[in-house]
Amino acid sequence: MAPSGPGSVRRRCRRVLYWIPVVFISLLLGWSYYAYAIQLCIVSMENIGEQVVCLIAYHLLFAMFVWSYWKTIFTLPMNPSKEFHLSYAEKELLEREPRGEAHQEVLRRAAKDLPIYTRTMSGAIRYCDRCQLIKPDRCHHCSVCDKCILKMDHHCPWVNNCVGFSNYKFFLLFLAYSLLYCVFIAATDLQYFIKFWTNGLPDTQAKFHIMFLFFAAAMFSVSLSSLFGYHCWLVSKNKSTLEAFRSPVFRHGTDKNGFSLGFGKNMLQVFGDEKRYWLLPIFSSLGDGCSFPTCLVNQDPEQPSTPAGLNSSSKNPENHQFPAKPLRESQSHLLTDSQSWTENSTSLGKGKAGMSNPALTMENET
């Protein structure tokens, strides 16, 4: 067995360091449990009814907080399926030929049947040299994970994981339940925090836990409320954090609202159409992460289009089967009815008839 080189040692050290924020949050959460459940509720509260109500509500929020945090951390980000990877022969062509028309032709052939609408800023096919694949819409290469992530939002150090299609709902619930957790602690701890400054508490170690608990809960409530509000806005607009900073580019040009279908349908795309799962960290998002509904006004004329509802639905994130049309039924039903789909597609096809397709060039975009 070959000895580990310095590069391998550095990678292992980085992997260990990446877990420090998660360990910090876990230790803080463990201390908050001791400070609230033991020192505040059991030691400091004198009213039995208040103790019971606070402990039941606290443990409910604590359980949902931990559950959603766990799912966000340990749900593996989804990567593009094999349909987006170049074949061995295509990889050989790209490596052997100089960058030019040969590269363009390889990517053009490989992408013609794929459900992709977005391009690079120069209008090229979005290709990843590191992963050697054609990037699906809303997919980006994460430099930390060194992988292409489906519908990548950002890499979050507090969960040591990429937030993307497979765990974005879990991340939103993590923000929501952590915010409720902190607000609940601050609200129920407030009267005892006031007693601390008015010398109304016994002179025990509990008083210091109560003081620091209120400060920590209030501080995190402020920061979490702004972060949660921002992501709620992103969901309402059907944007990722990356797309908010750099709008996606389509064949017709940049369109910051290219994936927005309206508030209600945007919410359904993240939380799914089964309401009983909305508040639970259980995967219920629509689609497969590789193709997404777009505004039909400026539909890409190069992509095939058929009426919605002809293909079987797919909500399982592991199932990747690409028909001739770019959308699954689970995604297409978010759009208008099949008649309007057909009419729009027909009118667009006529409007674009006779136009030559601009040459595609390959760009490295990570």
Automatic annotation (TrEMBL):
TM region(s), chain numbering: 16-36, 48-70, 170-188, 208-230
Is the keyword Acyltransferase assigned to this protein? Answer: yes
Q: Which residues form a coiled coil?
A: none
Tell me the keywords, alphabetical order.
Acyltransferase, Membrane, Transferase, Transmembrane, Transmembrane helix
UniProt feature, compositional bias: Polar residues: 297-316, 332-348
Any Pfam family from its record, for instance, is DHHC
Q: What GO CC terms are in its UniProt record?
A: endoplasmic reticulum; endoplasmic reticulum membrane; Golgi apparatus; plasma membrane; postsynaptic recycling endosome; recycling endosome membrane
- Report the locations given in the UniProt record: Membrane
Top-level enzyme category: transferase
Matches recorded under PROSITE patterns: DHHC
One GO term (biological process): protein localization to plasma membrane
Q: What does the entry's domain section say?
A: The DHHC domain is required for palmitoyltransferase activity.
Q: What name goes with this protein?
A: Palmitoyltransferase
Taxonomic lineage of this organism?
Eukaryota, Metazoa, Chordata, Craniata, Vertebrata
